[in-house]
Amino acid sequence: MKGSYFKSIRIIIRNMSHNHSTVINNAEIAENRLADLRKKLDEVRNFKIQEEINSLIKENNALSSKVVKAKLELIKLETQQGKKQYQLPDKTVLTSEALLVSSSTLEAIPQETKKAKKEPAKKKEKTENASSSVDSVVDIRKLDLRIGKIIGINKHPDADSLYVEKIDCGENIPRTVVSGLVNHVPIDDMRDRIVMVLCNLKPVKMRGVTSEAMVMCASSPEKVEVLIPPAGAIPGDLVSCEGYPREPEPQLNPKKKIFETCAPDLKTDDKKIACYKGSPLVVPGKGPVVAATLHGVSVK
Description:
Elements: H1 2-80, H2 103-107, H3 112-117, H4 121-136, E1 145-155, E2 163-168, E3 175-179, H5 187-190, E4 194-198, E5 204-206, E6 209-211, E7 214-215, E8 217-219, E9 224-226, E10 240-241, H6 258-262, E11 266-268, E12 274-276, E13 279-283, E14 287-288, E15 298-299
C-alpha cells in the first residue's frame, strides 16, 4: 500500500510538471504570435501613413504650381498696367516657387504674354516711360501708413523722454517703436491704444533700442496729440489718401528723403482731419483719421 501511494504521488508530480511545461510553452507561443501581430500592425500603420504623406506631397506640389501660375499671371497683368514690381527685403521673388513650375505650367500662361513680347518698340518704350514717371513721383503714395494697436509700453531705460512700445500692425510679429511722447501723452493714455503708424521707415537705433516704425501725431509747438483712427479700425488696416493710389516703397531710402518731402503737406484741416495736400487720410469703408483738438497743424 505504501509503495503504491508513493507511486501515485510521483505520477501526480510528473503530470504537474508536464502541465507546467505545456503552459509555459503555450505562453511563449502566444507571446510570439502577439509580437508578430504587433509587427504586422505597425507595418500596416506605417504603410497607410506613408500613403497619406505621399498623397499630401502630391497635392501640395499641385497647389504650389497653381500658386506660381497665378503669381506669374498677376505680375504680367500689373506689368502691362505700368506697375513696378518690388522685391521685398526679406524675400526673393519667385525663386523657390519658380523651381516648382513645370514647362507645362509655363505653356498654360495665356497667349497674350507671347503677344506682349512682340509689341512694337514704340509701344514698349511708352510703357517704360509711364512706369519710370510713376516711380519718379515722390508723394504720400510711397508711404506705408497702417493702423496698429499698442499692446505693450514702457519708458526707455536710457532716455526719460522716450517710450518703447510694442505695436500690433496686423503682422506675425509686433513692431518695436520708440516715440518721444513722454512729455506729451501720459503712459496710461497710450496703453491698448489704436494708432496710425508709418511702417516703411528704415529701422533706426534710438539710444540702443531699434525702432521699426513711427506713431503719427498732430503736432504744434504747444501740444502733441496722437492721431485717432476711425471707429472699427483694426490692426493691419491700410490707410489711403484719395487721388494718391497706394504704391508704398518696401522701405524708404533715407537718401531720397521721401517722408521729408511729404511732411510739409501733411496737416490737419479745419475739421481736425489728417490730410495730404487737403485730401483726407482714411481707412476705406471706416472713415478718416483725426486729431482730438488740433486743426491746421503738422502731422508727423
